[in-house]
Amino acid sequence: MSAPTSPADLYRHSLRLLLDGNVPGWVDLWADDGVMEFPFAPDDRPRRLEGKAAVAAYMRPYPDHIDLHDFPALQIHETTDPETIVVEMRGVGRLVRTGAPFDMTYIAVVTVKGGRITSYRDYWNPLALLEPGTDFAGSGR
Question: How many angstroms from the chain centroid is the CA of residue 102?
């Protein structure tokens, strides 16, 4: 695949990498000083990751916890800032440890500069942590 040319193209490419379980490839899309934020994270979860290394450490165990199958209903909205998009989507799959279904709705605000993700605010649903059979330990979700 040629290099993505827009924030929307880069984001779609990032989802393909996650579906393929290619977390290192996903992390490679980040700027060295990129910031990932989780504004709705509960107190026992990280709310801000600063730098590509922190994002990599956070995401490294993701495939051990969640086996993603699809991102249905993906909607990418452009903003007045051509480097920033707003994304609405669902991530579906299964929890690796229990085999239970995984279905999470996300809204993300993503900024891409120079072909790299510089800011990613992930508005995931912390109430899903309370559902029986859900084990997000170590995944940040």
Answer: 14
* Beta carbons of 102 and 95 less than 8 angstroms apart: yes
pTM for this one? 0.87
Tens digit of each residue's pLDDT (9 = 90 or more) over 7-59: 999 999 999 999 999 999 999 999 999 999 999 988 888 999 999 999 999 99
What are the sequence ranges of the domains in the chain? 7-126
N residues, the chain? 141
* Assigned fold of 7-126: Nuclear Transport Factor 2; Chain: A, (3.10.450)
Sorted by sequence, the CB contacts under 8 Å of residue 67 that are 6+ apart come out as 21, 93, 94, 95, 96, 102
Degrees, nearest 5: CA angle 127-57-51: 95
Residue 112 to residue 82: CA distance in whole angstroms: 9
Rounded Cα–Cα distance for residues 129 and 57 (Å): 21
**Nearest-angstrom CA–CA distance, 47 and 38:** 5
